[in-house]
Design goal:
99 residues, Cytochrome Bc1 Complex, Chain D, domain 2, mainly alpha, globular, binds heme C
Length: 99
């Protein structure tokens, strides 16, 4: 398996919308923008990122993206936005977290 770099994955597949708030997407790094969403479990947010949610296209519109890439991109986004917040690690999603 290829090691997935969250930053690279985010830059390549998510930042196009989530850096600017395009289409009403929550802006990465803007905690207020993510405020109510972050109260959902990370696993729920991941599910939405993979299957799509309202204006959020499934996998950012790239249907062939491996789930693992979406997961690490999302984790990168959430950690950028909430550096001090513990993120829930519900297996299997965070099972391989290095922390
Ligand atoms: C084409 C633009 C676009 C791309 C690319 C995109 N998103 Fe989004 N995303 C959105 C929009 C718009 C929303 C807001 C959805 C809404 O609430 O209507 C959103 C919302 C989300 C949410 C919050 C879902 C919720 O439950 O509130 C997550 C998580 C998310 N995106 C993750 C990602 C990840 C991870 C990637 C990269 C793999 C990505 N997005 C790429 C547009 C995009």
């Amino acid at each position: 398996m290829v090691a997935v770099n969250g930053e690279t994955a985010y830059e390549e597949h998510c930042s196009g919308c989530h850096e600017t708030g395009m289409l009403g997407s929550p802006i990465a790094g803007d905690a207020a923008d993510w405020g109510s969403r972050s109260q959902l479990w990370d696993a729920v947010l991941l599910d939405h990122a993979i299957t799509g949610y309202l204006e959020m296209p499934a996998k950012g519109g790239k249907a062939d993206l491996p789930d693992e890439v979406v997961r690490s991109a999302l984790e990168y986004m959430l950690r950028m936005t909430f550096p001090d917040m513990p993120h829930d690690c519900n297996p299997p999603y965070c099972g391989d977290s290095q922390e």
